[in-house]
Design a protein that fits this description.
The structure holds two protein chains of two kinds.
Chain A: H1 11-14, H2 28-33, H3 40-52, H4 59-66, H5 73-77, H6 84-99, H7 103-112, H8 115-123, E1 134-135, E2 144-145, E3 155-156, H9 164-167, E4 171-172, E5 180-184, H10 186-192, H11 194-206, E6 210-212, H12 222-226, H13 230-244, E7 251-254, H14 257-269, H15 275-278, E8 281-283, H16 284-290, H17 293-299, E9 307-311, H18 315-318, H19 324-332, E10 336-338, H20 354-357, H21 359-367, H22 370-376, E11 380-383, H23 386-399, E12 404-407, H24 408-419
Parallel strand pairs in A: 5-6, 5-7, 7-8, 9-10, 9-11, 11-12
Antiparallel strand pairs in A: 1-2, 2-3, 4-6
Chain B: H1 13-23, E1 28-29, H2 32-36, E2 51-54, H3 58-71, E3 75-78, E4 95-98, E5 105-109, E6 114-117, H4 123-132, E7 135-136, H5 149-155, H6 162-165, E8 172-178, E9 184-188, H7 200-204, E10 213-220, E11 222-223, E12 227-235, H8 238-250, E13 257-261, H9 263-269, E14 283-291, H10 293-307, E15 312-317, H11 321-332, H12 334-338, E16 344-351, H13 357-371, E17 375-380, E18 385-392, H14 399-416, H15 435-438, H16 441-454
Parallel strand pairs in B: 2-4, 3-4
Antiparallel strand pairs in B: 1-2, 5-6, 6-10, 7-11, 8-9, 8-10, 12-14, 12-15, 13-14, 13-17, 16-18, 17-18
Helix pairs in contact in B: 1-3, 13-14
Classes of the chains: A alpha/beta, B alpha+beta.
Chain lengths: 433, 482
């Protein structure tokens, strides 16, 4: 039996949609399009019709099913908690099973399915990078442009020359009285933002933990899930759970909200016993709060020159109820002056592979956040998901704001490194092996 | 299940081509997918339309209407599709005409306290925009975060705040309307006073999309109240709560909202509410007052003084916005909690004179016991508008018939108490069979003559309000004819 649920497994919950329409108020795509096919209620009606045999996988249905960020906002506010994101995932898998992967889905699957390919591509630098990113002149050197017509004008991060696995050994021994923490890095952190991963590992090491960064870990499966490639999601789940079983870890920490949702939330829905793995998955902000970091930060002397920082809620944390922990961290940091912004909880618009298929809509969703960001007066917008960082920076660039999107860990690491008498790594880790 | 009208062919290609010519290719669809996603509203009814059209201007609406009128094709205007009585259901097929593209706030006139909007604007969005300017649009249906103002006008939407501020009709100064024959007419205007000709504005407000399609709305605004204060009061009996409502009004205080939850409702939310509820609590009132900050405290004190003799168990007064939010949360968890009682719910919105609320609640308790079916009641005590939720499992044999008998008894009681079978949801298809309970034949006949005068071919939202009393022009829609 397949690990992924099939559309038929959702029969009962699909019937629980009472068509009240509440989802219209919370769907970022519907707010842009105002078309019933884009909102949860419409998609559930279509899923029900598919089950009844009342409609086939016609073109318009495929289009409607592609118009979903899988952000889960509708589920949070649904009076009956109908899991639309899971249902859409199941319909996309049915489409793929019937017709094969759509072109872009194929590209994503080929890359995320092969760590070796991803590694090779990223080492080749920008020109040979996975999606054939083309470097454009930019003083910051951070912006690159995606050449496909659908993504014209998109700024994306540079693929790092040395990825996280080149920088950090597989196992770092900490103090004997401290447990081993597994770090699930995910593709974005490993290949595009390895410095976020370094910051995470730095923080763990400073606090005496042993760190396990299994080399065999792969993509969490969210992009594959988004493009309907159920087989690949299952394969990745097998590989990842296997990779982390090699050591006795207390927690498996993520610093990417999407990965957390993938290896945590989504793996929990798989029809396989992965509890040994999924029970340990924890977002870094929850972990650090659990470990008492807030008190430690509060005891630090505030920096004289603090950065004005606001926070963007990644959907994949917000919908799990993790909204307080990241803010508490920011508020406690000595180097940060935290300010809220309007619409902090609104989706950035990236949505797995959504922005590849529907860049204009994705951009419009992202643009809606900009007035609130500008009004907050923050010079940095911190978040807890590299995907959001990428999309936020794109929206910021298009809006012409002087704001930088960063990860909370970037800020936290600099606060802690300053406080610690001997900075351990600063990106120059010595390999143990 | 989708109800497919047997024997009907696909919509005439010529008609589809003409529609594409009017609104553009991308705004016309006959794809089964789009027909399915426009086959429902918040009732459990399902009827497939033949085509879905998204209009962008009044001129487009007018041309679509002329075409449909000529061809005898039913047209169903639709906003958010969140109605509770089937107002947007294409019971006879035809064209679902979606107005969500017309979503501009055209003007907020701070000098004259008037706003001009298109019908697809979401109610809460207008409220946010005017509140930024220190103004206020009071009607607040529970669906305000997603329902549209066009829909609010068509159904004459109410909400908790109408105790003090009235319903949608009290805020509509003027309309631009496309008639069933495709004429664009203008009613009322932008002034508070206007007695030129018949008051067509009031005719169209609440006409449930059967007399015309609203394409522009002139709304009256108020200054935004400076502050508000919320309290939650727990009572030993429903009489205590009802007498408190009467006492508050008798003291010449009109609160912004006076919401009540009956014992059955309280049983549903017990344990789920953030605010602890006393074990012997049999009724709750949520009272909110608004106005100048300086007078609110004394108003709250006066309310507490007049309700004190009526069996109060506990009183909670919100000081911060957060505490006020916690109180409203108690009210908001009611709907989701109802599912625990039974899978299917019949949600009626009866209204009785304020003083008869306890009589009505007792009658509902009696009906509930008699039929062995839970009936959960909550709603707007301040204006006598009770949301009656008959909770059943329709899969049980004979249940649909039982529900019918219960509804019959409920509505009979409402009429006896000099109330009305719908306070804010409208008649649509859901209550059409009960229309003659409340209205006498001559009154219904007068209404039908108005409908026939404006819509001689019965193409605009046919089969609503009067049910099948207004015959379809032909057995099959003309669209199927060559």
């Amino acid at each position: 039996m397949s690990w992924n649920k099939s559309l038929n497994d959702f029969e009962t919950v699909i019937r629980e949609c009472v068509k009240c329409g509440v989802c219209q108020a919370h769907c970022p795509v519907y707010r842009e399009k105002r078309r019933e096919g884009t909102v949860a209620r419409g998609k559930i009606a279509l899923a029900a019709a598919l089950l009844d045999g009342g409609v086939g996988l016609e073109e318009q249905l495929q289009h409607d099913m592609s118009m979903c960020l899988l952000c889960g906002s509708c589920v949070t506010f649904c009076p009956n908690k109908v899991p639309t994101h899971e249902i859409v995932g199941a319909v996309r898998r049915r489409i793929t099973d019937n017709q094969g992967l759509p072109l872009i889905g194929k590209g994503v699957s080929a890359i995320t399915g092969s760590r070796l390919l991803m590694k090779t591509l990223s080492k080749g630098g920008a020109l040979l990078s996975p999606l054939l990113f083309e470097k454009i002149p930019d003083s910051s050197g951070l912006r690159l442009r995606f050449p496909a017509p659908a993504m014209k004008g998109r700024t994306i991060p540079r693929i790092a020359f040395r990825n996280l696995f080149d920088r950090i050994p597989e196992f770092i021994k900490g103090r004997d009285d401290k447990p081993v923490i597994g770090f699930f890095a995910g593709c974005s952190i490993t290949y595009a933002y390895p410095e976020i991963g370094e910051a995470m590992i730095d923080i763990l090491r400073l606090r005496g933990y042993s760190v396990f960064l299994p080399r065999k870990q792969q993509c969490c499966g969210i992009p594959a899930l988004s493009s309907g490639n159920g087989g690949l999601v299952e394969e990745l789940a097998r590989t990842n759970t296997e990779a982390f079983s090699k050591r006795d870890v207390q927690y498996i920490i993520t610093a990417c909200a999407s990965c957390n949702s993938g290896v945590g939330e989504y793996y929990r829905t798989l029809q396989a016993d992965l509890k040994d793995f999924t029970d340990k998955v924890l977002d870094f902000s929850v972990f650090l709060q659990k470990e008492g970091l807030l008190t430690e930060l509060a005891a630090m002397e505030k920096w004289p020159e603090r950065l004005k920082v606001t926070y963007h809620d990644p959907c994949h944390l917000k919908n799990q109820g993790i909204t307080r922990e990241p803010r508490d961290l920011l508020r406690a940091m000595p180097n940060v002056e935290f300010v809220e912004m309007e619409n902090a909880g609104a989706c950035c618009g990236l949505g797995g592979t959504f922005s590849v298929h529907h860049y204009a809509c994705s951009k419009a969703i992202g643009a809606r956040k900009m007035p609130g960001l500008a009004k907050s007066g923050a010079s940095l917008v911190a978040t807890a998901c590299p995907g959001c960082i990428m999309q936020l920076q794109d929206s910021i660039n298009h809006a012409g704001l002087k704001v930088k999107a960063v990860h909370i860990l970037d800020l936290l690491a600099s606060a802690l490194r300053q406080a610690s008498s001997s900075p351990i790594m600063e990106g120059t880790a010595k390999r143990e092996d | 299940m989708l109800i497919l009208i047997k024997g009907r062919e696909k919509m005439n290609e010529q008609v589809v081509t003409e529609l594409r010519g009017i609104v553009g290719n991308e705004n016309v669809s006959t794809a089964l997918t789009d027909r399915i996603t426009h086959s429902y509203d918040a009732t459990q009814g399902r009827h497939l339309p033949d085509a879905v059209v998204h209009a962008g201007t009044a001129a487009e609406v007018s041309r679509v209407m002329r075409l449909a009128n000529r061809q005898g094709i039913p047209v169903l205007p639709r906003g958010a599709g969140s109605g509770f009585t089937g107002g947007t259901l294409p019971v006879r097929g035809g064209i679902v005409l979606v107005l969500t593209r017309m979503d501009r706030i055209l003007e907020i006139d701070c000098e004259n306290l008037v706003a001009e909007v298109e019908p697809g604007v979401v109610t809460a969005e207008l409220q946010r925009q005017v509140e930024r300017l220190g103004l206020f649009y009071p009607p607040d249906p529970a669906s305000k975060e997603f329902c549209t103002l066009g829909g609010n006008v068509a159904e004459c939407a109410g909400g908790p705040r109408c105790v003090k501020y009235g319903v949608t009709r009290d805020y509509i100064l003027g309309l631009e309307v496309v008639t069933p024959e495709g004429d664009i007419i203008r009613t009322g205007g932008r002034t508070l006073k206007n007695v030129v000709g018949y008051d067509l504005t009031r005719l169209f407000v609440g006409s449930e999309g059967t007399l015309g399609i609203v394409t522009r709305i002139m709304l009256r605004l108020l200054p935004k109240p400076e502050a508000k204060k919320t309290m939650l009061v727990q009572f030993e009996t429903i009489e205590g709560a009802a007498q408190s409502v009467a006492a508050i009004i008798a003291a010449r205080i009109i609160p912004t909202t006076l919401e009540f939850l009956d014992a059955a409702t309280i049983d549903c939310i017990r344990g789920a509410s953030g605010i602890p509820l006393a074990t012997d609590c049999r009724a709750i009132l949520i009272i909110e007052v608004d106005g100048d900050a300086a007078v609110l405290d004394s108003q709250v004190e006066r309310i507490l003084a007049v309700i004190r003799p009526h069996g109060i168990l506990q009183t909670r007064i919100a000081v911060t916005a957060q505490e006020s939010e916690a109180i409203w949360q108690v009210r908001r968890i009611v709907s989701p909690s109802l599912r625990k009682v039974a899978p299917d719910k019949f949600n009626e919105d009866i209204v009785v004179p304020r003083s008869r609320v306890p009589d009505m609640i007792h009658a509902l308790e009696r009906i509930s016991v008699q039929h062995g079916v839970p009936i959960v009641n909550f709603g707007h005590a301040g204006d006598g508008n009770i949301h009656v939720n008959i909770m059943v499992d329709l899969k049980i044999d004979g249940m649909p018939e039982k529900v019918e008998r219960i509804l019959d008894e409920v509505f009979s009681t409402v009429i006896e108490l000099k109330g009305s079978i719908s306070g804010e949801h409208g008649i649509g298809t859901s209550k059409a069979r009960f229309l003659s309970r409340e209205l006498d034949p001559l009154t219904i006949s007068c209404m039908r003559r108005i409908k026939a005068a404006l819509d001689p071919n019965n193409v605009l939202n046919p089969g609503k309000i009067f049910g099948d009393l207004v015959p379809a022009p032909q057995e099959e829609p003309m669209a199927t004819k060559p």
